Amino acid sequence: MSRFTIRAADSDDAAMLAGLLAEAFANSIACYPETMPPSEADLALRMQTGEAFVLAESEDKAVATVQRSEKEGIANFSLLASFEAGAGRALIRRIEAQAQDHGLRLVRAMIPDEPRLANYFSALGYLPIGRKNEEFRGELIPILTLERRLPLLTVREQRRSDADAIAALAEEDPWPFEQGSRPGWFVAADGDRVVGVIQARDVGSGLAAIREPVLATGYEGRGLDTWMVERAADYAGTHGSHTAELPLTKYTSPLRRQLEAQGWDLEQGSDRYVKQLSGQLHDDAFTD
């Protein structure tokens, strides 16, 4: 768990952002492509017109910031400034997570070609894909374009190789999963790493019970849980069930708005969400 609080900045943060950037980039070419650190007024206007900045805070104090954008299916960042060890890394990892959540596979940045900067980003998994000279503050300086290819974030059927991860996340005996794919079980995967588990189980009379989704630390609040619930419900609907139920717990209660947008209903006083399914009947009904 990160020791930093990461959040989107808004125009009310403009003065704080301007101070961070001015202190970090004074007389430094590391602020490329900005000729000078942006002013408070400039930052406020830029955020009001859609430019996005992200803040890292520690003990209610802003300690790092970065500008992020998405263009032509690629996430980009610049103006990374950090005053506490690990805060810059935390911001970059958040940008990568947001890119994955939006279905993007590439993150890029352009930096001055300096060994210190290049080594820092290399340690974070960024590789140079281009080098050119650009005019900056009246002189030509070498600029590196860096890129990191992100693992695919997906929800898929369980595989034999997922057994240990499922056991750790869901407190299940790994042996049945080691025998092969178990019908109705799905995992959320970040590349090759399993980070979530869910199950759809036929309980008879056209009703499917959807297990409460389980996610690894750091993957909460990214929409994966709702995605997992929908994947399990879709499976149930195409394997003979006309209704699905999901228990109301302290973990699924905060998902109410997202679930209702997907057609789940929580009746007042109920202890479960209910969804009417519309899939087609398959012969290979799933089992416990």
Features:
single chain, 288 residues, alpha+beta, Aminopeptidase, 2 domains, 7-stranded mixed beta sheet, 8 helices, 34% strand, elongated, disordered C terminus
Describe the structure.
There is one protein chain. The chain is of the alpha+beta class and about 290 residues long. The protein has two domains: about 5-150, Aminopeptidase, CATH 3.40.630; about 155-275, Aminopeptidase (3-Layer(aba) Sandwich). The protein has helices at about 15-25, 40-50, 85-100, 115-125, 165-170, 175-180, 225-235, 255-260; strands spanning about 5-10, 50-60, 60-70, 75-80, 105-110, 125-135, 140-150, 155, 185-190, 195-205, 205-210, 215, 245, 270-275. Strand 4 (about 75-80), helix 3 and strand 5 form a beta-alpha-beta unit. Helix 1 (about 15-25) crosses helix 2. The radius of gyration is 23 Å and the shape is elongated.
Assign the CATH class of the largest domain: Alpha Beta
- Count all strands and give the number: 14
Structurally, the number of domains stands at 2
- Overall 3D geometry? elongated
Give the helices and strands as they follow along the chain.
EHHEEEHEHEEEHHEEEEHEHE
Strand content: 25-35%
What's the CATH superfamily of the largest domain, by name? Gcn5-related N-acetyltransferase (GNAT)
The whole-angstrom Rg is: 23 Å
